[in-house]
Specification:
Strand content of chain A: 15-25%
CATH class of the largest domain in chain A: Alpha Beta
Distance between the termini of chain A: 46 Å
CATH architecture of chain B: 3-Layer(aba) Sandwich
Largest sheet of chain A: 9 strands, mixed
Number of domains of chain B: 1
Number of domains of chain A: 2
Number of strands of chain B: 12
CATH topology of chain B: Glutaconate Coenzyme A-transferase
Strand order of the largest sheet of chain B: 1-4-9-10-11-12
Shape of chain A: globular
CATH superfamily of chain B: Glutaconate Coenzyme A-transferase
Largest sheet of chain B: 6 strands, mixed
Largest interface: A-B, 39 and 43 residues
Oligomer: heterodimer
Radius of gyration of chain B: 18 Å
Number of helices of chain B: 8
CATH class of chain B: Alpha Beta
CATH superfamily of the largest domain in chain A: Glutaconate Coenzyme A-transferase
Structural class of chain A: alpha/beta
Number of helices of chain A: 11
Helix content of chain B: 25-40%
Structural class of chain B: alpha/beta
Number of strands of chain A: 12
CATH topology of the largest domain in chain A: Glutaconate Coenzyme A-transferase
Order of helices and strands of chain A: EHEHEHEHEHEHEEEEHEHEHHH
Radius of gyration of chain A: 19 Å
Chain lengths: 289, 252
């Protein structure tokens, strides 16, 4: 009997440490591992470095004072283009930040996954990324062309958190929506603590009932623990299981305008267990109280 | 009489003329309408997205239900970078600021270390501009957007490209800036921005007054091309029958 890797959100958080560099899967306000983010919000963890195609995961963790540094190409709520809590943290200067280009970000994850210090690219040449990200360096081609390129630095992660549609107890995962984003690379760029939450855990033999084998893009070799979390991406989208909860997102976005609004949101939606969160949002028809 | 939004859509379509079999990737309402118009008329080989992870053959600019999408290709973000880095894409992006050489800012206003207004971040602008032809869409032409100096260079302009050298910048081209007032290009000896055409009812003085830097204004500035009958039919009956474009640029 093969060992299972089933975990709870709190088990995952128990593996994380202050100051860790944590990669978060998804894209903007799409398929974010929100139930694990909520568990981090309940924990005493702090000084985290986030590496992500950012959405409300970044905003929530900034608002809760968990973040030391954000490595990002954008932070957006999609239907609300600018993430208000991230903006507030940046404008108040309370977090460090490391900007990258979206594609450079992919190369950084790939470099980490392949265990090389950088990958060469033209991306970034001539832009102010070299002013705003002091880590960036160029490299000269050793071949006859001698071209100067950007050395997109490896984004090595201490932990990675992703949310998929289906998984099995051993850590294989399946995406059923339009895009895997870079979840496989996010897991592969981490040296350990690679966690995947899923809408539903199924028998390995039943993946085929959910979607074609082309959708089975997360291997158990990439995953240390799997969390069954129905509604775990809420309020971000998790197609085809559910769309983004736009009303909830609007409510969340509105809480950046005052400390009182944030405190009320926190009391209603964050200072409670995941089970309580899920049952409350169902009772209220997904609308915040 | 065509509306201002119709003229803008044609101006956007014209940006993609001659592009052939590449990914035309206009971002925004009128850019999408204009891109679809180019493909439905004089540039039929263009590939276009559904705004998400598919390349679709449909002419409609608005989002379609999944069952109506005619899918040509599955195009997740990872594939998108393959197009960008292999030089098979012409993107039309927005710009919070753009200067006379086509440097573009969408990241933040003020000092980047502690910005007065944090915006999106760099997104894909550095990679887009160093690898592929890029155009910009400005729905509200004013001196804050068309400005003397951008606070952060996300998309690189011609002066930055010149500094990199011909070899390194060989894939760089900023083709046009289409605004609600006019069409601008960089077809001058030193690639400074030039007034290419004026939308009907707009004067050169109006554009100069709405621009925060010294624009190259030729002696004779033509009027922006008007849609022909076939283009009007496509716009009103097929591509944007609900008139979403009129909300982005109201008729003056």
């Amino acid at each position: 009997m093969a060992a299972h890797k089933r975990r709870t959100e709190d088990d995952v958080v128990a593996h994380l440490r202050d100051g860790m560099t944590i990669g978060i899967g998804g894209w903007g306000s799409r398929r974010k591992p929100m139930s694990i983010i909520r568990a981090i919000l309940r924990s005493p963890l702090r000084d985290l470095t986030l590496v992500t195609y950012g959405g409300p995961d970044v905003g929530l963790l900034c608002a809760a004072g968990k973040v030391k540094r954000v490595v990002y190409a954008f932070v957006s709520l999609d239907s609300i283009p600018l993430e208000p809590h991230f903006r507030k943290a940046r404008q108040e200067g309370v977090i460090e930040d490391e900007p990258l280009d979206e594609g450079m970000f992919l190369l950084g994850l790939q470099a980490a996954a392949w265990r090389v210090p950088f990958l060469p690219t033209r991306v970034g040449l001539g832009s102010d990324l070299f002013r705003d990200n002091p880590r960036l360096r160029t490299v000269r081609s050793p071949y006859d062309d001698g071209e100067e390129l950007v050395a997109a630095p490896a984004l090595v992660l201490d932990a990675a958190l992703v949310h998929l549609n289906r998984g099995d107890a051993r850590g294989n995962g399946q995406f059923l929506g339009p895009d895997l984003y870079f979840d496989d690379l996010m897991l592969s760029a981490a040296t350990g603590n690679r966690f995947m939450s899923v809408e539903r855990i199924v028998d390995t033999a039943d993946f085929a009932k959910e979607g074609s084998f082309h959708t089975q893009r997360i291997s158990r070799m990439m995953v240390d623990g799997v969390v069954e979390a129905p509604g775990g991406a809420h309020f971000t989208s998790c197609q085809p299981d559910y769309e983004r909860d736009e009303a909830f997102q609007r409510e969340y976005a509105g809480t950046a305008k005052s400390a009182e609004a944030w405190d009320a949101f926190k009391a209603a939606w964050l200072d409670l267990s995941e089970d309580e969160y899920q049952s409350r949002r169902q009772v209220t028809g997904n609308e915040p109280a | 009489m065509p509306t201002r939004a119709d003229v803008c859509a044609v101006a956007v379509a014209e940006c993609f003329r001659g592009d052939g079999e590449i990914l035309a990737n206009p971002i925004g309402t009128i850019p999408m309408v204009g891109g679809r118009l180019a493909r439905a008329s004089f540039e039929p080989d263009l590939c276009m997205t559904d705004g998400y992870a598919l390349l679709i053959a449909n002419d409609e600019a608005a989002e379609l239900p999944p069952e109506r999408k005619v899918v040509e290709y599955w195009n997740p973000y990872r594939s998108m970078f393959d197009w960008v880095w292999s030089g098979r894409r012409h993107v039309m992006m927005g710009a919070t600021q753009v200067d006379r050489y086509g440097n573009q800012n969408i990241a933040a206003i003020g000092d980047y270390a502690k910005p007065r207004a944090m915006l999106l971040g760099y997104r894909g602008a550095p990679g887009n501009t160093i690898n592929d032809t890029t155009s910009y869409w400005v729905p509200n032409h004013n001196p804050q957007v068309l400005c003397e100096k951008v606070d952060t260079v996300c998309g690189i302009g011609y002066d930055r490209a010149a500094t990199l050298g011909e070899e390194t910048a060989r894939f760089h081209e900023i083709r046009r800036v289409v605004t609600n007032l006019c069409v601008l290009d960089f077809e001058t000896p030193d690639h400074r921005m030039r007034l290419r055409s004026l939308h009907p009812g707009v004067t050169a003085d109006e554009v100069v007054g709405a621009t925060g830097f010294e624009l190259v204004v030729p002696d004779d500035v033509p009027e922006s091309r008007l849609p022909d009958d076939d283009e009007l039919r496509l716009l009103y009956e097929v591509i944007d029958p609900d008139g979403a474009r009129e909300k982005e640029v109201p008729n003056p």
